[in-house]
Every structure is written in structure tokens, then in C-alpha cells.
């Protein structure tokens, strides 16, 4: 009888296997539960001088449905210790069929020896909850030499088109991380402002403050700046990044190498 | 009779804490105890770490077992650090409040193991249950 009585909530943790710079796993989610309420990534941080070890998604699928796209910057979902336990999980409310899990992540700076994912599972038959808080994400990465961009006050301009069909942008996250190890990371330092124009509207660009990625991890709820912008099919998004006055000195102090990656992640429905 | 009188005056909420010292050496560390028999429900679980010696690194600490009255609460290989929060988190939010298990002298069996010890150190793990009537 004991085996027939399952918990209302269960957790399942998978430790990924490391090969080169790639952590990966293919496995099955506990068949006694039909619903993934959320998931939580976790990794150790044994080298105290390097506060972050950037990871990007290579592949994350359950039952062949994409949960996060290739290129997704995992720090956008990492909670810090200021996040209460129940808020650490990224909600997806995903109904499971076979439960086939495929996950692989790429470590940008090789400092970490373990990487895991924990799922929060339930038995759920209320179909109105299915796919609630399940968003699509679209990722764009630029590589920029920060010193080479000083002549025009460090401004760069990019124009992108979403890689997937998007109707409404619900939020964006914009991250900066160095191509090599930082020597003197700055914390909570606003490096500049991203001006974002959607649907080629010239007026009222959305201004997004950009912080150094070493800012305290704040988890899923606060990583994405909330938006509710309709976007026409095929429309482009124009980005203008303006550094704050004097911040170039911060860059030079912060990074051994001034080449940096900028990733823009669009959260949409 | 005096004990029955005490039951009538029980607080609705009680916090029951147990602790164990853990060494980063991949041994098993067990906590086995019974919940207060005067309380009906376990409604929350919280964890706290206190460094004793060496550098505190709880990144690899996992539950090998966490059961209340034979029922699994956290599975084998669940990272204990998920339950850990900083002092910026209000006390009441430090608890996993989705727990709803019978108390009344329920047997709690917990096994902790610090997998892959990188740094040698000792720390105290304090487990607190929130009990309610």
C-alpha cells in the first residue's frame, strides 16, 4: 500500500556528466508524476576568485519539446541565497508524457566540477494549469571589443530579428560577460544603458539599464525586465548600447581582456 | 492530569530543532528522531549551516535520505544548499512550507553526505521543523 501513496510534491535531481567543457545528460523523469512545476539549476563554485562561471544552453528538451533554446544564458535563472527555497524554481508547469530529458550546457570558463538540475514534480490533472508560465526564449549573442569602441563613446548598434515566431515580448534580459577571467570584478555597477526599439518605432525606445553580470544572483522573477510589447512578424529590433561616462576605465580594471560577450534574451509568448 | 492540562495550553506552532556536525569526508551523517508527540502536523522544514573549522563549503552536501514516517520528503542526491538562504531572507520564508506531513511522534530519518570533499572543514547542520496543531 505504501507504494501506491505518492507524495503530492516530489523532487528529482540529475547530476550532469562532464566531458570537455560540456555537461550533459539523457535520462527519464520519474514516471509516477505527470507534471513538472519547475526546475532549478545548480553548480558548485570552488574557485573563490571567480564569482561566476557562465553557462549557456546547448540543448534542453523534455519529450522533444524545447524548454530553453541553444545559447540561453543560465545566469538569468540562477537564484541567489536571498531567494527563498520555494521561489528558487523556474516555473514551467509542463505536462510530462514519456519524460524524456535531454540537457546539455556549455561552460564558458572551466571552473566548475558539478552541474545539476532539480525538478519539482507533481501529480496534476487540472489542465488549466498546463503550460502556465511556460515562455519561449530567443537568444542573441554579440562579441564586442570594448576598447575598440571607445572612439564613439563606446556605443555600439545592432539590429536583430527574432529566430522564432514571437507575438508579444514579455521581458528581456541583457547580460555582459568577459571572454576571459576577470581580474577585478565590479559588483552592482551599472555599465550602461541599452536603448531598444521594436517594430522600427523610432519614438520611445525602451531603456534597459545594464549591470555587470557579477551582480547578486536574483533568480527567475527579477532577471527579466518586464515588458508587454507586441511585435509584428518579421519585424526587427534595433539595439543601441551606450556606456556610462567613465565606465570604460571600469572595464579596463575589470577585465584582463576587454573583449566581452553581450547576450540579449527575449522572453515571449 | 497535569500533562493533559499542558496540552490544553499548547502553542499552536512549535519549532523543533536538531543538529549534527558534518565533516567534508564523504561519510554518512545521520539524524534520527521523533517529532513532538503533542503536535499533529509538520508544516515546514528549514536548514542552517554554522561553520566550525576550515572554510565553509556546503556546495556538495546532499541528502542521501530524508523521510518522515517512511515517506520521502527530499530524494536521494537532493542538494541541501537549495534549502539554504542568507540572512536577508525573512525568517518565515526560510522554511519549505509545502510540507504537510503527520507529526505525533513521527519518525524522522535523515542521512547527509558531503559528496566530493574539496576543502577540509567541519560545520554544523541545524534542521528545524515547524510543527502545528
Question: Could you walk me through the main structural features you see in this protein, from its secondary elements to its overall organization?
Answer:
The complex is a heterodimer of chains A (269) and B (133). With 269 residues, chain A is mainly beta. Chain A is built from two helices and 17 strands. Chain A has helices at residues 220-223, 247-254; strands at residues 9-15, 17-19, 22-28, 35-43, 55-62, 65-68, 90-95, 100-107, 115-122, 136-145, 156-160, 168-178, 190-198, 206-211, 225-230, 237-243, 259-268. In chain A, the strands form four sheets. Chain A has a five-stranded antiparallel sheet, with no helix packed on it. A four-stranded antiparallel sheet of chain A has the order 1-9-4-7, with no helix packed on it. In chain A, strands 10-17-12-15 form a four-stranded antiparallel sheet, with no helix packed on it. Chain A is globular and about 55 Å long. Chain B is globular, with a radius of gyration of 16 Å. In chain B, strands 2, 4, 5, 6 and 8 form a five-stranded antiparallel sheet that branches. Chain B is built from one helix and nine strands. Chain B has 133 residues and is mainly beta.
Helix/strand/pairing class of chain B, anyone? mainly beta
Run of helices and strands of chain A? EEEEEEEEEEEEEEHEEHE
- Rg over C-alpha atoms of chain A, rounded to the nearest angstrom: 20 Å
Overall 3D shape of chain A: globular
Report, as a whole number of angstroms, the end-to-end distance of chain B: 20 Å
What characteristic shape of chain B results from the CA principal axes?
globular
Secondary-structure-derived class of chain A? mainly beta
Specify the biggest β-sheet of chain A. Answer: 5 strands, antiparallel
Strand order of the largest sheet of chain A: 2-3-8-5-6
Question: How far do the termini of chain A sit from each other?
Answer: 43 Å
Oligomer: heterodimer
- If helices are DSSP runs of H or I spanning 4 or more residues, what is the number of helices of chain A? 2
Order of helices and strands of chain B: HEEEEEEEEE
Mean pLDDT reading of chain A: 77
Helix content range of chain A = under 10%
Strand content of chain A: over 45%
DSSP summary: helix tally of chain B: 1
Report the β-strand fraction of chain B as a percent range: over 45%
Mean pLDDT of chain B: 87
Largest sheet of chain B: 5 strands, antiparallel
